[in-house]
Amino acid sequence: MKINLIVFCTITCALGAAALLQSCADNTPPPVQNSVADTVGVSTSGTMNYEGEIISVPSPIQIAMMIQKSSLPFKQNLINGLQNKGRYLNETSKSLNLGIYGADLAYVANYNLGQINIDYFDAIASISSELGILENLDKKLVTKLNSNLSNRDSILKLNSEFFRMADRYLKTNQRSQLSSYILIGGWVESVHLAADASIENAEFRLRLGEQKYTAPSILRLSEKLSDPAFDKVKGELIKLCEMFTALQSSYSYKQPINDQREKKTYLRSQSVVNIDEEQANAIREQIRVVRNLIIE
């Protein structure tokens, strides 16, 4: 199945990213307008509203950007094989794996892999079409992205706008559960990539531990989803979230800096999650269990 390259990028960035919590980005909190709230170690750049509850989740693109900055080598065995695409027969499985493939494409995009990129574009476009998403995105935004095809930063910057369109389409058509499954798939795959990187990179182990702050949102979201096709994944996903939330953290308060001229308050408090190698290994194994249930 061959579709215009930019359409593939559209779906990947939009649905693979799913939402925009930068828990895997810089620990330094951004300036907040007229606010004195503590940061709790997490910088929120976006959320989703599910049945009236605000839920924050991390973006796979943040993990991909960290991997790029760390100059980690490409590992093809880390990503979901394209041969698996034909296994996904129901909407739940397709949606979960659309999130998986979206995170994978954000990962492979760092390496200029030519045909591999195109093949993953194909898989994402195919699943999106089967779910009735591809044909319902605003073509004007596709054109806008097309004009920036050679600029990777511009493509990533536009991803959130595409996600909002896809998310709006699914919810408008009473299909909000699919949006949630896409989001969960993207989170699982991005945490899987971070977990592998954390074996040799201490910075990634810190980022892995910081999922302690995201896990309650994923847990609440999972508990709201009811589908026999999701039951096995749901049980193991809840175990993973509980392992993250059980991690201990230490909090250090620092006086916020008030910039009267700019009318901004800079929040400097920090919360550091403590995760030793034994805990990291147990979490890596549970991530493997959850991911295998999704992709196999």
SSE blueprint and pairings:
Blueprint (H helix, E strand, L loop, with lengths): L4 H13 L14 E2 L14 E3 L2 E3 L4 H10 L21 H18 L6 H16 L8 H8 L5 H21 L3 H22 L4 H8 L5 H10 L6 H15 L2 E5 L4 E3 L4 E3 L3 E5 L2 H19 L1
Antiparallel strand pairs: 1-6, 2-3, 4-7, 5-6
Short description:
The protein is mainly alpha-helical.
What would your notes on this structure say?
This protein is mostly helical. The protein has one domain (5-295). The protein has eleven helices and seven strands. Strands 1-6-5 form a three-stranded antiparallel β-sheet, with no helix packed on it. A two-stranded antiparallel sheet has the order 2-3. Strands 4-7 form a two-stranded antiparallel sheet. It is globular and about 50 Å long. The two termini are 22 Å apart.
Give short descriptive properties of this protein.
8% strand; three-stranded antiparallel beta sheet; 296 residues; 11 helices; 7 strands; two-stranded antiparallel ribbon
Give the count of helical stretches: 11
Helix residue percentage: 40-55%
The profile of the biggest β sheet is: 3 strands, antiparallel
Q: Report Rg.
A: 19 Å
Name the quaternary structure.
single chain
What is the count of structural domains? 1
Q: How many E-type strands?
A: 7
Order of helices and strands: HEEEHHHHHHHHHEEEEH
Average pLDDT number: 74
Task: Order the strands across the largest sheet as they lie in space.
Answer: 1-6-5
Q: Can you tell me the overall shape?
A: globular
Summing up helix and strand content along with how strands pair, one would put the structural category as mainly alpha
End-to-end separation in angstroms reads 22 Å
Q: β content, as a range?
A: 5-15%
| Unreliable segments of 5+ consecutive residues | 1-46
